[in-house]
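Consider today's protein:

***
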Amino acid sequence: MQDRETGSGSPEAVLRNLLRTGALQGLPTHPQVLDTLLAVASGGLARQRPYAEREVNETLLAWLESARAKVDHVTLRRRMVDLGFLKRTADGSRYYLNFGRVRRVLGDGAVEIDVGAMVDEIARQRAARKNAHRHRD
């Protein structure tokens, strides 16, 4: 069971809570929940591979789109850098995934979570509940 205040629980449970409206409404303020979100968002990036900023942006844009997020990719990328999920070269021209940071948050499995599928499932469940409620009246 997840504690909504601390965000404790599995990464899937934390994400389900964040996506309960069928979209990611914004970045969470609780540090553990934010860490989980950023770790999951980094799932599209490979370890030990240099990325140009454009490539990072494209990957994050795709992830945000799948989460139907109301967050821009620049904000997400900056938070990932600020909190150590992405590292930049000294000249700022390349980014690298800090997989150790991801693993510390998600565990040794560092599972990839299909946020798009999760959002679609939540949307289907919400629609089914609305439909059932309408038919009760």
User: Anything to note?
Assistant: The CA atoms of residues 53 and 81 lie 12 Å apart. The chain has one domain: 11-136. Residues 11-136 form one domain.
